[in-house]
Amino acid sequence: MGDRQVPDIVVGRLPIYLRALTFLKADNREITSSQELGDRLGISSAQIRKDLSHFGEFGKQGTGYEIRYLENNLKEILHVDRMWDVVLVGAGDLGNALASYKGFAGRGFHVAAAFDADPDKIGHEMPGGLLIEDVANLEARVQAAGWKIGIIAVPADAAQSVANTLVGAGVIALLNYAPISLIAPSSVRVEQIDPAVHLQHLTYYLG
Question: How many CB atoms within 10 Å of residue 2?
Fold first, then answer.
C-alpha cells in the first residue's frame, strides 16, 4: 500500500507533478527546475523539492531535473509504470463519461468492465464500447479477474452496498463519485469525488 511514513498530502501532489512533466515532455523539453514546476502549479519550489526528497534525489543543484528521468521515477513511485484494470459500477451519464474518457489510458488505467442494476441497460454498449454487465454478477467477476480498483458512479443510496460488494470481492482501492462518504476497512483506500462539494468550496470565496 506504499510507504506510510510519507504524508498523504505529499503523495497527493505527485500526480500533479507527473502531469506537469508530461506536458513539458510534449513540448520537447528535456530539463526543468523546481522553480519552473512551482510557477506552473502554484506551489513553492521549496515545497516541490521537499516533496521529492521523501523518495530520493532526482536533480542536481544548478542543473535541475531531467524530465524523462523524473517522470519515470514518479510513475514507478505511484505504481503507474504498469496498466491497472479498473472496474466501473454505474452506467448512467457519469459512468458513460468515465468509460469513454480517453485520459485514463495514457496515465496507467484501463476500464476493464462496467456494471449496472438497470435491466434496460444491461447488455447494451457504453460509448467507449464496453458491454454493460449485470451488477448481480459483480462479485464473481471481480474475484475471477482479480481487479483491485473500483470506480463507483451510482446514486448515493446504492453506493455503500456496491462498495461492500467490491471490497468483499477483493478490491482494495475505491474512487467514489457518489455524494456520500463511504465506510470501508482501514486496509481499503477510498477517494471521494463530489463535484458539488468542490463547487461549495469555491463559492465560499465568492461572497
Answer: 11
pTM: predicted TM-score of the whole model, two decimal places: 0.90
The domain in which residue 93 lies consists of: 84-198
What does the pLDDT look like over 85-125, one tens digit per residue?
999 999 999 999 999 999 999 899 999 999 999 999 999 99
Same domain, 113 and 150: yes
Question: Do 92 and 73 reside in the same domain of the chain?
Answer: no
Q: Torsion angle, CA of 126/129/135/138, rounded to 10 degrees?
A: -150
Cα atoms in the Cβ-side hemisphere of radius 13 Å centred on 24: 23
Do 106 and 57 reside in the same domain of the chain?
Answer: no
Q: Are 177 and 194 in contact (CB under 8 A)?
A: yes
